[in-house]
Amino acid sequence: MKTRFNIVMPVCGVLAVLSYQGCSSPAGGSAVNPTVVNPTVVSPSVVNPSVVSPTVVSPAVVSPTVVNPTVVNPTVVNPTVVRPTALAASSMPPYFEPAASGVKAPGPDGFLQRWLLLEPIPQSIRSNAVFTESYIRNAIGTEYFPNQFTVVPRDGDKVKIGDEESVWHALDSNGFNVKLFRFAEAMNKPTYSILFWVVTIVDSPREIHDVRMAVGSNSASMWWLNGQEAVSLFGDRRMVMDDCVSKRLTIKKGRNIIRGAVINGPGLSDFCLRFIDEAGEPIKDITLNLDTI
Asked: Which end of the chain has fewer CB atoms < 10 Å from its terminal CB, N or C?
């Protein structure tokens, strides 16, 4: 039997109810008429005037010299096609920046904004109405690449999925939510009917007990902390902050691995994730550091 309880907490001035495990685009010449002069008759003799034929000067026809220009065939340089191993800054949408080296603190409200995102894996989804728990567990549980539940990738790492290569990208989200739709769009990848895998590393200076992982996603998703399933969101849903929360968890001192899978048919895929304490306050004394991978 599943246990269910609600946590009522104020979030951004609104009471939010946290429920646990319930979510388990031409010139022409002028004509001149000649003047006719009648000659004077002097005698019966008719004097025939001398007829002087005008000299017609044929203008010299000069054939223009045709210069054959030298035709220079342009040199065609075949560029070397290099598949990007990470999103170039010039192609980065305003929603992301390449992840910087070093550590990154959570956002003002505790949301984790540094992630490794794998290019989307195409699915066959006509409608999100199919997102039952069994459908989601089967779709996400399918092995698409080796060690998908344990691998901790680096920026630029590639995996072979069928006949295609997909690349991991280390990115910082400029908002509290990670816009997966915009990520796929920037990579010229499918934006609908897809599955995303995401990973991040949380460093904690201390062991923190009784925390909860709070997640919102569009659409369904599943999440793991250090290899253990923490919270799952089933059904067709919009991304809502703290939509579902986990049972009580422990963040270990040192490195903690968070892994997630977000699936969507039609719609704008995104997610947000943070940890909250027993009072519903965000955990902020942790850092994100992909250099530790």
From this structure: N
